[in-house]
Specification:
The complex is a heterodimer of chains A (about 260) and B (about 775). Chain A is of the alpha/beta class and about 260 residues long. Chain A is built from nine helices and eleven strands. Helix content of chain A is about 35%, strand content about 25%. The chains are: A alpha/beta (about 260), B alpha/beta (about 775). At the A-B interface, strand 1, strand 4 and helix 2 of A face helix 26, helix 29 and helix 30 of B. The structure holds iron/sulfur cluster (SF4).
Chain lengths: ~260, ~775
Amino acid sequence: MKGCVFDIRHYSVHDGPGIRTAVFLKGCPLRCRWCHNPEGLEPEPVEVCRERPAGGKTIRLAETIGKLMTPAEVAEEVMKSRIFFEESGGGVTFTGGEPLMQVEFTEACMHLMETGNIHTTLDTCGYALPDVYNRIAARANLILFDLKHYDSGIHQRYTGVPSGPVLANLRASIEAGFPLIVRIPLIPGFNLSTDTLIRMAGILPATGWSGQVNLLPYHRIAMHKYEKLGLGYGMKDIRQPSAAEVEQAAEIFRERGFVVTTGG
Amino acid sequence: MNERIRLLRQNSLDAVNRISGERAGLVTGFYRQPSIAALPVPVQRGMALKHIMQHKGLYFGQGELIAGERGPEPKAVPTYPEVCVHSLQDLEILDSRPKVSYKVDEETRALYRDEVIPFWTGRCVRDHMFKALPDTWKQAYQAGIFTEFMEQRAPGHTVAGEKVFGKGMNDLMADIDQALDKLDYLNDMEALAKAEELQGMRLACEALVVLAGRYASLIEARIPAEKDPGRRDELLEMAAICRKVPANAPETFHEALQHYWFIHLGVITELNPWDSFNPGRLDQHLWPFYSRELAAGTLTKERATELLQAFWIKFNNHPAPPKVGVTAQESNTYTDFCLINVGGVKADGSDAVNELSYLILDVIEEMRLLQPSSMVQLSKKNPDALIHRAIRIIKTGFGQPSVFNTDAIVQELMRQGKTPEDARRGGASGCVEAGAFGTEAYILTGYFNLPKILELTLNNGRDPLTGEQTGPQTGDPALFSTYDEFQIAFRKMLQHFVDIKIAGSNLIEKIWATHMPAPFLSSIIDDCILNGRDYNAGGARYNTSYIQGVGLGTMTDCLTAIHEQVFRHKRYSMANLLKMLAVNFEGYEDELAVLLYKTPKYGNDDDLADVHAKEVFEAYFEAIDGRKSPRGAAYRIEMLPTTCHVYFGSKINALPDGRLAGKPLSEGISPVQGADRKGPSAVIKSAAKFDHIKSGGTLLNQKFSPDFFRDETAIVKLGQLIRAYFRMDGHHIQFNVVSADTLRKARHHPEAFSNLIVRVAGYSDYFNDLTPELQEEIIRRTEQEQM
Ligand code: SF4
């Protein structure tokens, strides 16, 4: 079995506990306008040309984004960071794209990680059939669950899919007591308003829940990637939220009894 | 910091680096006396020091708490014509060069022209050396294959041990007298030489008492005019302290600092030893004084802090003695490498961290000075709080403190034959050098240009820069059919030049031992008194000579390129590769891009490249480790560059890793600038693949963007990264936390960034004081972090 992996990044420090290695799986069912990993959207490897400086000239080098790998190959690469996991209580994070798009492969990788006693985290947009979602979510040591908007129409407009399946998986995860960190991107003009955030907080149980909320202020950092890949960027006019806005948003969740972190 | 410290600090920052002719004049006057030449050399040296201490100008600044300057005022730097006499042209260069300049006034030039130059030309150590050194050595030196540390500065590289804080000059003189009494003229054929050496040491100890006495008188003379009663009391106390130390052992915190400072001045006035001098394990040495006085109520934490801050400023007042020529290129900085150690383990192996460790870290953060340098020793036994505190300072971005692995250092020292206790009393000094503090003469003899050896191997011994047959013919690489053949040729070339370097070092060492002993330094480093032998002649308990390898990252990537692209994949023939190098890849940009971007690189935890790092390290180790020197030292290796990677790079044409002609080499054991693309943990994994324990120090530079530290967990996670590296026996790691953007702005508007301090290699420096090449290199190094 082979999966399509577009990056394996070590010393990843913002996506789960400790020092982690992030495995980026290619392919995503959503098309968020602000997506920071546009190269990970299509499920197949893509050929691109990268311009590189060489001796005063610029040379175009062919590069493939996305590599077909076996679970064992992924495990071998991840395990290069074993000593850092041990020092820090870290582990592996499956992210993307959307790991659930390659559910068999992700499951096989997970299995190898579990045999090696490595802490596993699933970073997901939550848009999948419940049984597909559960195959991975039920065994992950931690789930980073992206919650973008409660309103299905707006969700559809900005991500290309309705919010229903996402909310269903989120509710089921809460019910089942899965270890969750709900990640909410803060995007001006999309969900960065007091009203919207209050409604989103309403989805989460205010009491008796062990999960946390992680607010991710929108960052324009991905813009240059779009240019390089020759893609149009749907968010050109969006500004980055101010520190005060981020704090305000955090306060909304904090007031309601949630443990909140910002940034990531 | 309070107002007094703020002023003292500002004075130190504002003082202009300049040459003082004072010492040169005194030393010349002393040696010109006809009676001197007939005296034994160590006695001459002891008397010379005493002469200087008797006659030098004294400086005691407004509000100072620690007395004593090497020159007539802060940053007035003396010269050492008996070591290396500067020509008028040297003085002109020092005065006018754009970076690391020292102002030279007319009076000094006249003194040099009329007295110093005529007397010392042909007499100074440097002239002796260059007369004696063989042509093969000179040719290699000129080709940039190695440098020589002892051509302008004295051997040193050592650090104070416990004895320095526990004994006064009177105690040392008693020890010396005892050793003199014990001399056995019947059986010991060296007894006379030992007596002469011991007499020299005694004179040198007297010199220190003379200096302190003069300071006491100066301070006493200031008392009547002092209006402020608080300051009056202080002056009274300071005068009493100068009457007491360094003649007697210190008993209070303030006495301990002043005591050390006089000894520091003694070492750096006697000669201009590398890395000045160093109090070493300061939190350990000061702890008994601090804890005793705190309990007795005679010292507060605030006063201790103020005294330490005043002590810090004294170091900053003392820039490195002026360096010219190749020495300036290999160590192009005002920093004089005094590296204060904090943390680590005690002699019994237990956790040494105490309250003072943290207090000293507070001082480092608040003072934010170039000198002294500072580092944290981190043992597996030390609490995480220590490393977290250190990282909080590191993230403020002035490159200090650097972080060392105590457990690795102890193993390194023990492998070299130190007892566990002596090893644990040690630490690191200079940039990254492991040493047994108080008991070891560990002397860095010079940098060694590994990629130049590769270039010569690629050219069958001919230097493409000069066209000369500089090395032996190790075979035409175009005819090699396997990588092994290439490797064997490289090793032959390496051994040839290592032998030339060692032969030269042996000769130079002998010249120093004979012509230029250091009796004062000898009196404070064990067991020179006991052995009746000088520090420069093997008198210390342990003796080591280092040859510091430069360009490990560049070397590794070159060998990888040759192995992978020429021999394994046969993408380019050796002849073709040589052609590309000869034309600096002009017209071969596609091939260059493949070498740069499609070839495995060291620093990415990729075994295809990293095996070659191990191969280079082992080859270098085998060529050097354990060879003997005349003073009884063993040669060992280290991997550090100071600024020599820039100089060495200027001596090499294009290389197979895609580095263009003249560009800097990689520094320390860091990857080639920009070649590490998988983050810091991969760099650390690569760097840990060779055995640091077999070295006496390796230097790893890491950069982090300030952005990395935006949340608190980053501190913990960086601490864990360091712990992981040290678990793999990594020796040292240092950090630059500054954005490439800031650096680029600083380059274009230096006036607006006069306070910007960055980590270079083993030390920090003002960005504005770096040469354009180094600035460029640091920007490149930093930039890549932000991709
Ligand atoms: S879910 Fe994530 S990877 Fe998928 S499109 Fe949205 S932002 Fe991009």
